[in-house]
Amino acid sequence: MQFGNLKFSFNAPVILTFTIISFISLILGILTNGFTTQKFFSVYRSSLLSPMTYIRLIGHVFGHANYSHFMGNITLILITGTLLEDKYGSFNIALIIGVTAIITGLVNIMLFPNIMLLGASGVVFAFILLSSITNTGDGSIPLTFVIVAFIYIGGQIYEGIFVSNNVSNLSHIIGGITGAVFGYILNIR
Fold first, then answer.
1. Domain with 133 in it: what CATH number?
2. CA dist 84 → 59, 96, 102, 171, 185 (Å)
3. What is the domain range of residue 45?
4. How confident is residue 139, by pLDDT bands cut at 50, 70 and 90?
5. Whole-prediction pTM value?
6. Helix or strand or coil: residue 111?
7. What is the DSSP letter of 79?
8. What does the pLDDT average to over 88-98?
9. Which helix H or strand E contains 19, and what residues bound it?
10. Using CB atoms within 10 A as the burial measure, which of 5, 24, 30, 74 is most buried?
11. Any idea what DSSP says for residue 165?
12. pLDDT band (50, 70, 90) for residue 136
């Protein structure tokens, strides 16, 4: 895409598409007073016979409760995800997003049947841990990974036990573990 002397590139197609879908989801949620967010972009226990259950299992990572929730997640996804997509490729990043969505969605359905989960924070945590384990060419575990894992996962465990809020700390932990596992697998190749 070019505007005069400025040339723009669609440099990270998965991350940019994720951002666009999340933004459209946010706008639709605002325009429908949360109806589309609840029906398409959040996950909760529902009949396994309903096709919507499976759409929501992935769709919940695109949904956000409000603009600040959206901005917090998307800013970190744009910062970390773009670099990760450049290093690991679009397919792997899409796979990480999909696996994180499905695992966090299934855990929420099984363990928290009366709670609606939405947001991309599990993906954010997957990308944070994946970023910190990225430079492991010699098979060693980077100290930065250990520190980041301790700070983020330890913080989520602490908040889950001692802080009462509407944050799904378990989704953050699962996302972090997913990112770490993918980081290990992708870096041993």
1. 1.20.1540.10
2. 22, 11, 20, 20, 14
3. 2-188
4. low
5. 0.90
6. helix
7. I
8. 97
9. helix 13-31
10. 74
11. S
12. low
Location of structure tokens 């060693």: 140
Name every residue whose Cβ is closer than 8 Å to that of residue 49 and which is 6 or more positions away in sequence. Answer: none
Number of compact structural domains in the chain: 1
Phi-psi region of 119 (alpha: psi -120 to 50; beta: other; left: phi over 0): left
Cα–Cα distance, 82 to 18 (Å, whole number):
11
Q: What backbone torsions phi and psi does residue 2 show, to the nearest 5 degrees?
A: -135, 135
Cβ atoms 176, 121 nearer than 8 A: no
Q: What is the dihedral of CA 109, 112, 116, 120, to 10 degrees?
A: -70
Tell me which residue of 17, 21, 132 sits closest to 70, measured CA to CA: 21
- Residue 131: C-alpha distances to residues 40, 55, 110, 149 (Å): 29, 28, 29, 11
Q: Report, as an integer, the average pLDDT of 98-113.
A: 93
Residue type (1 letter), 87 = K
pLDDT of res. 84 = 96
49 — pLDDT class (breaks 50, 70, 90): very high
